[in-house]
Automatic annotation (TrEMBL):
Gene3D superfamilies, per the entry: 1.10.1740.10, Winged helix-like DNA-binding domain superfamily/Winged helix DNA-binding domain
Family affiliation: Belongs to the sigma-70 factor family. ECF subfamily.
Domain RNA polymerase sigma-70 region: 24-89
Keyword Transcription among record annotations: yes
Keyword list, A-Z: Sigma factor, Transcription, Transcription regulation
Superkingdom of origin organism: Bacteria
Domain RNA polymerase sigma factor 70 region 4 type: start-end pairs: 127-176
Protein name: Sigma-70 family RNA polymerase sigma factor
The keyword Transcription appears for this protein: yes
Length: 217
């Protein structure tokens, strides 16, 4: 049986189809959970945020509109919802409320180590390099490579234009490459990088296998 496209599912959601919303939830829960866990250490808060987010979508289905990118729409809307929840949590303990870019920035303490079976020196070095990127650079690499978001989606999510998204991704990748080879020299004590190590970087950057978070049950 052919699986319905996201657009077909979304069209059914626009008519209030509960089964369509359930399918959308099934498809996107892991992706949204992993994305949310890059900003917030409280996994229960992230889970609750996703559930409340979908409950709100169902409740207000008549206010939803057609979209060419369901993934982009959900990522942007969920990011905004998570910001509201984090802002509320922050307001309970602090007088100062950070702006969205400060509150929704990748928490470096939440960047996981590679799984034990993939914890080679190269993966460790890549993680060290990634940690030195700015939160915005980390997020665009994650959105593009791990979540498969398009530049149009990223532009909406990060509130920048299409060309700025392409430029930011290019600069972020170049910076990651620069940091990778600096860390490589420090870690391995090598003065020069060999050709095969250039291939190692390309493989790691394309796959980001080390950037793993256990999916929510």
């Amino acid at each position: 049986m052919t699986q319905l496209s996201d657009i077909k599912i979304w069209d059914s959601c626009l008519n209030g189809d509960r089964k369509a919303f359930a399918e959308l939830y099934r498809r996107y829960y892991p992706l949204l959970y992993n994305y949310g866990c890059k900003f917030c250490a409280n996994k229960e808060l992230v889970k609750d945020c996703i559930q409340n987010f979908f409950a709100k979508l169902i409740q207000n289905y008549h206010k939803l509109s057609a979209t060419q990118s369901v993934k982009g729409y959900l990522l942007l809307a969920f990011r905004n919802r998570l910001y509201d929840d984090l802002k509320y949590e922050n307001s309970r303990s602090d007088m100062f409320l950070p702006c969205i870019d400060d509150l929704l920035s990748f928490d470096k303490s939440l960047i996981p180590y590679p799984p034990e079976d993939e914890s080679s020196d190269d993966f460790i070095i890549m993680r060290l390099a990634f940690l030195e990127l700015s939160p915005r650079q980390q997020e665009i690499l994650y959105l593009y490579y791990m979540l498969g978001a398009s530049h149009s989606d990223i532009a909406d999510i990060l509130n920048i234009n299409y060309q700025s998204s392409k430029n930011l991704l290019c600069r972020s990748l170049l910076k990651l490459k620069e940091l990778f080879f600096i860390k490589l020299k420090d870690y391995k004590g090598q003065a020069d990088c060999k050709e095969e190590e250039l291939d190692v970087f390309s493989h790691l950057a394309e796959n980001f296998k080390w950037f793993h978070v256990e999916l929510a049950k």
